[in-house]
Design brief:
Blueprint: E1 13-19, H1 28-40, E2 45-51, H2 52-55, H3 65-76, E3 79-84, H4 93-101, E4 110-116, H5 123-135, E5 139-140, E6 145-147, H6 150-153, H7 159-185
Parallel strand pairs: 1-2, 1-3, 3-4, 4-5, 4-6
The structure holds flavin mononucleotide (FMN).
């Protein structure tokens, strides 16, 4: 008779929710609060918010105490969700600086996207981000959340968005658990 593997005793997955917009009077906090409430309801995650407004990362990519703290936090995470707006068909510059600031801490970890914006719901920003995170050796999960015309029409009860968020988190958990086991056993060949 085939033996069934016992479930692995997993510690919670550390999820960092990265806030991409650093604009004055940004809409981002509404979307972040909506997502984080749902992430904190999932027992698989230990969820934290990493707001780039507070991170103070230099655009010249020099090393500062803030960069060291940011790098350490990324290194301790098991999974990421980026909450991104869309500006001129791209994602916020602060997000690019954040991604470029860290080298190894992103690697062999999954990332999901919660996007918002005008007509496109931030989906063009997400597609650009997928290219960049692949270069950082990350796995971007297929499911993403998108709110179009967010400032005017944001609806926290939106069924499609709620469903997408749950599916995205389930995919993140799958990848985060698998990749943490692999990272614990063998250094990622980056
Ligand atoms: C400079 C700028 C460019 C924008 N370009 C786009 C765009 O290309 N596509 C889109 O759907 N929305 C666009 N928008 C709308 C923003 O996505 C929307 O205002 C969103 O709320 C911005 O997020 P934030 O308030 O958290 O910064 C743009 C907004 C700004 C300020």
């Amino acid at each position: 008779m085939p033996m069934t593997e016992p479930p692995l005793p997993m510690r919670p997955l550390r999820l960092e929710v990265i806030v991409g917009s650093v604009r004055a009077e940004r809409f981002a906090p509404v979307i972040v609060d909506w997502f984080v409430e749902r992430a904190r309801a999932r027992e698989e995650f230990d969820t934290a918010i990493l707001d780039l407004v507070d991170a103070a990362l230099p655009q010249d990519l020099s090393t500062t105490p803030e960069v060291d703290a940011f790098t350490e936090r990324i290194g301790c995470a098991d999974a990421f969700v980026v909450v991104t707006s869309e500006y001129n068909h791209g994602y916020p510059a602060a997000l690019k600086t954040a991604l470029d600031t860290v080298k190894h801490g992103w690697r062999a970890k999954p990332i999901g996207f919660v996007a918002y914006g005008g007509m496109s719901g931030g989906l063009r920003a997400v597609e650009q981000l997928r290219q960049v995170v692949a270069e950082l050796h990350m796995v971007s999960v297929r499911e993403a959340v998108s709110f179009h015309q967010a400032r005017k029409h944001f609806d926290p009860a939106d069924g499609a968005a709620n469903d997408a968020a749950q599916r995205m988190m389930t995919q993140l958990v799958w990848w985060a658990e698998a990749l943490r086991i692999r990272r614990d056993h063998a250094p990622y060949p980056g």
